[in-house]
C-alpha cells in the first residue's frame, strides 16, 4: 500500500456503493480523501467513520451535473491538501428502459451524470495534474460499455462514452497522467433503484441476485492506484463469475 499512502484522492458518488467502499479501503491504505456526493448526511457519516478509524477525509456536497460544484470539490482538495493525485469518477445512474418507452428525461439524466459529470471531473483536476506533472484519473464505466443490452441502449451509450474518454486521457496523458477504465458487472449497490420501468426492473433484479460486493471494485481501484508511477493499468472488467454477459 506504499503507493497509496499520502495520496490525495477525490471520489465522486462517495455516499454509497462503490464510492463508499472505495473510500473505506483507500483510507486504510493512508490516502487523504476528498469525498463528493449529493447526500450530506451520508457524506458526514462516512467522513466521521473514516476519521474514527484513524484515516483522513473531508467532504463537500457535490452534484456532478453542476460544473461549478465539481470545480469546488477540486478546489477543496487543493486547499486542504495542496495537490490532487487521483480522481475516481464514480458517480452514475442507471434508469434502464426500452427506447419505445420514450423516457427522454431519464436519457438526459444519464447523459448529464454519466458523461458530462465525468467530463466535469476531468476538467476540474486536469490543470492541477498538469502543473504537478503527475496524476491519475479513474473512470467507472461498465460491462455495458462493452456489450449492448436490451432496455439499456442509452445507458450503454453513456458507458461506451466513458470508455472512449478514458482512452483519450490515456493517449493525451503522456508520461504524466495515468488513465484507468473500470467496468463492473453486477455489483450490489443502489444503482438498480433508479429503474422506473417495472418490467426492466424485474429482469435486472433477477440478474443482480448474483451480484458481487462493492468491495470487489474497491479492490480493483486500489490495485490500479498502488502501481508504481511507470505502470498504468488501463482497463479492468470485473464481473460475478456466474454473469454470462
Automatic annotation (TrEMBL):
Pfam families: adh_short. Signal peptide: none annotated. Keywords: Oxidoreductase. GO terms for molecular function: oxidoreductase activity. PROSITE patterns: ADH_SHORT. Transmembrane segments: none annotated. Residues 7-172 form the Ketoreductase domain. Its EC number is 1.-.-.-. The keyword Chaperone does not apply. The keyword Membrane does not apply. Belongs to the short-chain dehydrogenases/reductases (SDR) family. This is SDR family oxidoreductase.
